[in-house]
Design a protein that fits this description.
By secondary structure, this protein is α+β, with helices and mostly antiparallel strands. It contains five helices and four strands; from the N terminus they run ββααααββα. Helix content is 46%, strand content 18%.
Length: 136
């Protein structure tokens, strides 16, 4: 299928149809459950990857608000000790953008990494609370 756009001079310009839009899941938590295993599988390979690469390779659905909610998934995966930051790379969608490149944490170390991340976050929260009390 093609879209035909008449030009102002009377000629017709033909362009290819836009790409199919991925399916969008209505509930965020249901979406996380649906895509989680694909990212755990990618982490188990111990090869570096970007979120967009996995989403495209596995034809994963989009979250309810794709522009803002894809970015929260790696945080959840990090909190679970499944992935860690590896490097930066070019975006698949926008080649001028810089995105995170992730790599999987070995399965035996995941719980230890998740516990350490929880402790670090708790320590940062406590430090901020202490700063707020000192400023008041």
């Amino acid at each position: 299928m093609s879209h035909i756009q008449p030009a102002f001079d009377g000629t017709e310009m033909v362009a290819s149809a836009p790409a199919k839009i991925r399916r969008i899941v209505d509930d965020y938590e249901a979406w996380v459950t649906e895509v989680w295993d694909a990212f755990v599988e990618a982490a188990d390979t111990r090869e570096p990857f970007t979120v967009a690469e996995i989403a495209a390779a596995k034809n994963l659905p989009d979250p309810p608000h794709p522009k803002s909610q894809w970015g929260s998934l790696p945080g959840r995966l990090q909190d679970a000790g499944i992935i860690r930051h590896h490097d930066y790379g070019g975006s698949v969608r926008a080649h001028q953008s810089l995105v995170h490149v992730w790599i999987g944490v070995p399965a035996p170390l995941r719980e230890m990494v998740a516990a350490r991340r929880r402790e670090e976050r708790a320590a940062r929260r406590a430090a901020r609370a202490l700063e707020r009390r000192a400023a008041a």
